[in-house]
Amino acid sequence: MLKLILRRLLQMLLIMAVASLLLFAIFDTPEFKKRLAVQELGGFAVSALTEESYNAWLAEKGLDVPFHTRYLNWVGDILQGDMGFSYEKNRPVGPLLLDRLANTGILAFFVFALMIPLSLVLGILAGMKEGSVQDRTISFLSVFTTSIPEIATAILLTVVLSLGLGWLPAKAAMINGFSFRELLLPVLTLVIYDFGYVARMTRASMAEVMTSQYIRTAVLKGLPYRRVVMKHALRNALIAPFTLIVLQLNWLLSGVVVVEVFFEYDGFGKLLLEAALFPDVEVVQACTLVAVAVAVLSQIISDIGYTFLNPRIRFA
Amino acid sequence: MAVTEIEAGPSALERLSHPRALIALGLLMWLPLMSYVMGGSALGPAADYILLPAIPATLLLYVLGVRAFRESRVAVIGLTLVFFWLLAAVAAPYLPLLDPNKPIAPFVTPLSEKRDVFFWLGTDFKGRDMLSRMIWGCQRVIVWGVSATFVAYVVGALFGLISGYLSGWWDEIISFVANVLLSFPVMVLFIVILNYLGPSGFNIVVAVTFASAPAIMRIVRGLTLDIKTRDYVFAAQTRGEHPLYIMIVELLPNVRGPIIVDACLRLGYTTVAITTLTFLGLGLQPPDPDWGLMIRESAKTAMLWKFSYMLLVPALAVSSLILGFNLMADGLREMSLRD
Fold it and tell me: What is the pLDDT of residue A112?
């Protein structure tokens, strides 16, 4: 197990190195440098700039050296804990990224706090009696809600709850400090989009367990149905959903972009998009590293959890 | 006479249900639509009637589809939603619609009249007719979504077949590249690629290929590993067939089944991705109508209850199309499990 984890971590570092090198090469093209110049100095100033003063500007920004030397410098800085500097926000990337990650973390916390109980309960209720009316209703509901893209869910919720009924603020920009009411719409959007998927997987896992021999034995022994479900079925049925829920962390990092942009919530996704459009290369780099790390780590956690929860593997 | 006509009906439909006939009909629907959207002004005067043969082809395909899916109500509902938009896409030039790019009167609410024109869905902040923008908008979403998914499948299946059948170094290299791509969150990949290549329909195809092909490759690779030990593959190897022949003629047709369901789901994802990317400003560009673009343009101005229709119309349109794809996938899976 330990060997497997170490190999995964090594692979993660390798992927990070390859990915960041590629990103550096991509953002090294003349067009991107030009765009950065336009952002920094204004389009008019750049068009009036002579070749020499443009080169001087590049030299001042440290952009005139070939990208592999810049890359090596950047790697050296990272190893010393320095994530670089954001051209756009004019502050070091480290604190900026932490700030935004904390915001997305808050969002993710509430999403999971709502989504996990909701999807597990619905999935179990549906899987308990396969093919029953409650199963079909829940299954259809979950297909339906996952079919509506986040952007459309965000629009529907905003129009109904905010513009129509006036219960919640339409934006989550948090101008006057943190406010839970502003966070509700983004949280609801993400929960509605995602719960269906986890619920369906829970249902599949539950339905499979309910057809197994030991459940039939328990029912035939005359145990109360409630107890069969709560004590016998759930322990096995919840193993698969657990791994899935951890993997949703990875999904959240992509899924959060459009929600944060729509609701103007200052989180990781909005930072990434703004940085990529600017182009703020060191911010994009840092965001990508975080994203890759989250992807690989959530995979490892879900693997460990699976082994730990499943006695058949644990004792094998 | 009457009797023979009744008997001739179903048999004609059955003959059309043959895979080759279906492919021909599909191409008859798809090629004009694709060249209409991608060709644009290059088509010249031909643009006026190129979509005409596609309309009967679409209707016929729908009838055949309903016949094939009749066991599953869910699949029929999905099929209906998808074909509603397909029909709208091919018939858009011939419907009595206003010009989707022409400003007429801004901020007209739905079901009201202004300047002697009746607006079913109102107009947007620039005064363009929402109904015609919605119907024209589905052309681009469908064409780019399907093309991107198709290219991703070709690339993913090819690499999956190579990696699964040839194993060894090929497998190591392809799997590593796939792992690198898969460990990026999808949105990060999209944003980086589209930001690098610049926003356009063709670049969306490239970005979707990079994002989806690794997952498709894994599925195909797994299926290939399972199938390549079958006798008919050994037979082909003994005959001395070229590996490429074995991959395409022996293996590919046999991994088709599970892939079709996945393709339906992936069509939905791609549609979501295209709409989302366009909303973020990384996808299709104005002024031509497009659902993501409609949302993007209205998101700033329509934040009032009275004008919320500007956001609701494209949101409901894209949701119904994706619901159609997902219900179709669900129905197909259900049907494949049954037999």
Answer: 92
- Tokens at A224, concatenated: 């109360």
B179 touches A: beta carbon within 8 Å: yes
With contacts defined as CB-CB under 8 Å, which chain B residues touch A156?
Answer: 312, 315
Which residue is closest to A257 within chain B, CA to CA? B187
Cβ pair B222, B164 in contact under 8 A: yes
Omega before residue B103 within 30° of 0, cis: no
A73 vs A66: CA distance, rounded Å: 11
The pLDDT of residue B7 is above 60: no
Vertex A20 angle, CA A18 and A25, to 5°: 95
- pLDDT (0 to 100) of residue B317: 92
Angle at CA A107, nearest 5°, toward A106 and A109?
65
Q: Nearest to residue A96, comparing CAs of A267, A281, A250?
A: A267
- Residues B309-318 have a mean pLDDT of 88
pTM to 2 decimals?
0.86
Q: How many CA atoms lie within 13 A of A209 on its CB side?
A: 26
What CA–CA distance (Å, rounded) separates A292 from B187?
Answer: 12
A123 CB near a chain B CB, below 8 Å?
no
Give the closest of B191, B299, B304 to A163, CB-based. Answer: B304
How far is the C-alpha of B81 from the C-alpha of A116, rounded, in Å?
Answer: 31
Q: A40-68 pLDDT, tens per residue?
A: 777 677 777 777 777 777 777 777 777 77
Q: What angle is formed at CA B332 by the lines to CA B139 and CA B6, rounded to 5 degrees?
A: 85
Amino acid at A95: P
pLDDT on residue B1: 44
Parts of chain A with a pLDDT under 50: none
- Taking the CA of residue A31 and the nearest CA in chain B, the distance in Å comes to 9
> Which of A49-53, B271-275, B309-313 is least confident?
A49-53
The Cα-based distances of B5 to A73, B62, B64 in angstroms read: 80, 22, 19
Task: Say whether B308 and A170 touch across the interface (CB within 8 A).
Answer: no
Quote the percentage of chain B above a pLDDT of 70: 96
Nearest residue, CB atoms, B187 vs list A159, A164, A257:
A257
The Cα angle at residue A56 between residues A50 and A60, in degrees rounded to 5: 145
Residue B212 tokens read as 């989806």
